Amino acid sequence: SLAARTDRYSDVGNTSNPKIGVTWEPVKDLSLRGSYGESFRAPGLVQIRGFTNGGKGGLFVQNYSDPTNGGALRVGVALSGANLSLTPETSKTKTLGIDWQPAPGSKLSLTWFDISYDNQVVSYLSDLTVLNREAAFAGTPIIQRNPSAATVAQLMATYPLSAGVLPSTWTLFVDGRNYNLGRSKTKGYDFQGVTRISTHGMGEFLLGLNGTVFTKYMVAQTPAGAMVDQLNTIYNPLKFKARASLGWGLGQVQANVSVNHLNSYDNNLTTPVQKVAANTTVDARVAYAFESTGLLKDTTVALGAVNLFDKKPSFVNVQQSINGGGGFDPTLSSPVGRIISVSLDKRF
């Protein structure tokens, strides 16, 4: 297959992006496939125009971990807001895959992927450890130590205070607005398997397994910066994550249990590096579908549980930011714990 897409934007210009896909079936029930595509993502309206103070944003007073001072906290002022100079992100994606159906009701799939991003939009407003990577931002406006009196006066005159108390002397300013600074390269494999087993008198079982193995994740903080290996580190892709499920159905009753696993990873924002423990949680759901012809026709009632055994998130030694966190990784887990839900669905 061959496709192309053209987009025209009034503020960021025009773009055309091709996509090519090939599928070959050498024998029955076995397919080989490959694809190549380019994509373009225009910055969002909020990223360009902002959403507070008429799009100007505001000043946030925060405590930053400063490696030049033994990791002690340094009071800094961060700026949020719009950036009218943002340009689109671009990416190139290559995939190779194989699909096999060894038996009726069963399918195994494996997909290799290679994804490159350029001009990525990044923001460091909530990153209280950004000083640990200060050298990577050389030549950018992100980190400014001891800003001049003129700079401080201009910022205070232009932006309102959104959080905290402004220090009498500014020793650190962090521009937390969105910028086109990032580049990344990602490689890995997606896998998926499912099989359906029918029995006599015991219902039908459905077994499933899917996950991702990342083999490479390289990131550059700036367009001219060196690519750095960030695989399996905090706030970045893990080497391995998977979800296994077992479903069962008999008549009007259905039930399923899923096990979610995240491997251990490194919190390299601390010294020494912290090894964050792997985490495994279990979800469950049971449902009953009414087959009556009255009011309950086409009605399903279900009881579900997320994190059935109330597993706590793995401890992560990170400081709380204005967006939460502190003691756990909000990108991978939740401090809420077990959630029980009851639902009633009615089709008309």
In summary, what is this structure?
The protein has 348 residues and is mostly beta strands. The protein has helices at 45-49, 149-158; strands at residues 2-9, 13-27, 30-41, 59-66, 72-79, 89-100, 106-122, 143-145, 161-163, 172-175, 179-198, 204-220, 228-229, 240-250, 253-262, 265-267, 274-276, 279-289, 299-306, 339-346.
Task: Name the features.
mainly beta, 13-stranded antiparallel sheet, Maltoporin, Chain A, 348 residues, 5-stranded mixed sheet, 2 helices, 20 strands, globular
What would you say this structure looks like, in words?
- The chain has a single domain, classed as TonB-dependent receptor, beta-barrel domain (Maltoporin, Chain A).
- It has 348 residues and is mostly beta strands.
- Helix content is 4%, strand content 53%.
- Strands 1, 2, 3, 6, 7, 11, 12, 13, 14, 15, 18, 19 and 20 form a 13-stranded antiparallel β-sheet that branches. A 5-stranded mixed β-sheet has the order 8-10-5-4-9, with no helix packed on it.
Characterize the quaternary organization of these chains: single chain
Large-scale geometry: globular
Uncertain parts: none
- Main structural class: mainly beta
What is the strand tally?
20
Reported CATH architecture: Beta Barrel
Share of residues in helices: under 10%
